[in-house]
Write a structure and sequence with these properties.
Elements (H helix, E strand, L loop, with lengths): L9 H6 L9 E12 L5 E9 L2 E10 L1 E4 L19 E5 L6 E11 L6 E6 L5
Parallel strand pairs: 4-7
Antiparallel strand pairs: 1-2, 1-6, 2-3, 5-6, 6-7
Length: about 120
């Protein structure tokens, strides 16, 4: 039986190995880390999910989130980015982490550093 997203603890999310940076997703769990970024803000890890199933874990040191690219203009390296549509936010019971739920499927930028940038694709499943 697979563990449900709402059953993970903060420590379990924090300890999750990084993987799946090329995954398509429609949910992002924002996991606050203990380390501070050079900016003075707390670093974040991001758990990528598709319909509640974990498909990736990325980041750990990012201090800013840019849904649909910096300035909401789509990822500036990707001329095929589609305008962002729909965003809901909830708070997971087990971990206390914030989850972003979006319509459509999303991808991360090629580089996940200080800025966590993701954008909507035209892909559907």
């Amino acid at each position: 039986m697979t563990k449900k997203l709402n059953e993970y603890t903060l420590e379990e999310f924090r300890e999750m190995e990084l993987f799946g940076e090329d995954s398509l997703f429609n949910n992002v769990v924002i996991v606050p880390m203990d380390e501070l970024h050079d900016s003075g803000y707390r670093g974040m890890k991001f758990i990528l999910c598709e319909h509640g199933d974990i498909v990736g874990a990325v980041g750990g040191w990012s201090d800013v989130v840019h849904p649909n690219g910096i300035g909401n203009h789509g990822l500036f390296y990707d001329s095929d980015a589609i305008p962002y549509i729909g965003l809901s936010i909830d708070c997971l019971a087990g971990s206390g982490c914030i989850r972003l739920m979006m319509s459509g499927l999303y991808k991360c930028s090629d580089f996940i550093g200080s800025d966590f940038v993701f954008y909507k694709t035209g892909e559907t499943k």
